[in-house]
Amino acid sequence: MRVNSQMPVGRLAEHLESLSRERIWFAIVAATAGIALADYIIPAVGFAPLYMPVICAAGWALGAREGYFVAVIAAFLAVAPSLHHIAALSVPLLALSIGVRVVTFLFIAAAIISFRRSYDRELFHAHRDRMTGTLNKEVFERRCARMIEDARHIGQTLLLIILDLDDFKAVNNREGHRAGDEVLQTFAGGAASIMRREDLIGRIGGDEFALLVRVPSMVEGQGFARDIHTRLSAVLAQSRYPVTCSMGGLLIPPHASGSASDLMHAADQAMYRAKNSGKNAIAIDRAGEAEAPAEARIAAKRQEGLV
């Protein structure tokens, strides 16, 4: 379920998503006040229906509680201009007039809130690998590219990791696909438990996973990589099936060049080097080293304390 960005409602939804909650509240309050003022000055026109898109915007962008709150306020404001005309009505009729508007506006809020929940649920599943709950390959690569670009602007060092489960196919062939699924889910759950909220984790192949982690520096990034490998190895050791993991790590300084795809390839090459060295191993490279002379690479590592 996706909102078509080419339609007016799709463009409005995208615009709302790009705004902060403070700006959305300001827009809703300003629109509500403008409609109320227009309805008071020219009551014969009947501006009350214009509250409906305001209610929809509140329910979509701010949440259920805020959507219902705006709906109730809008209902009372919609009745206010005509109060002097119905002052002679009995209390029950006045209450009925207000109640009809409250119920109508609350129904509109409930409908848009329900749609937003369905949209969020479908969007979540569309971004996730169904087996492991991690990001799927396409979404990981897209978010990875954005995170790398952001890191360049703010001077942040990153650690890109590619992980491959050793002997996973042997487990699949010997124990069956159910056992293989259990290994994947155990590994993904363990990886998710040690990652921070801002880190990325995705499944990019049958038994391959990728991580993108913010690290304080190039030197500390190497320690981060080794710690992650140790902790993930401990997760796999608790599994009922004998599986280890090979890790390729790529430290990405803020000034590193190359696209996200190039950096993913470099981390993948490091992973294969680790795997070919005997499995259950780790290889860590620095982005851009492949283009530098060997002597320059060694000197740079000594200067930064990596060797």
UniProtKB/TrEMBL annotation:
Residue intervals of the GGDEF domain: 156-287
EC number(s) recorded for this UniProt protein: 2.7.7.65
Listed GO CC annotations: plasma membrane
Segments crossing the lipid bilayer: 68-87, 93-115
UniProt KW keywords: Membrane, Transmembrane, Transmembrane helix
Pfam families assigned: GGDEF
GO terms, biological process: cell adhesion involved in single-species biofilm formation; negative regulation of bacterial-type flagellum-dependent cell motility
Cross-referenced Gene3D superfamilies: 3.30.70.270
Highest taxon listed in the record's lineage: Bacteria
One Gene Ontology MF term: diguanylate cyclase activity
Matches recorded under PANTHER family: DIGUANYLATE CYCLASE DGCC-RELATED, REGULATORY COMPONENTS OF SENSORY TRANSDUCTION SYSTEM
Protein name listed in UniProt: diguanylate cyclase
Species the sequence originates in: Sphingobium baderi LL03
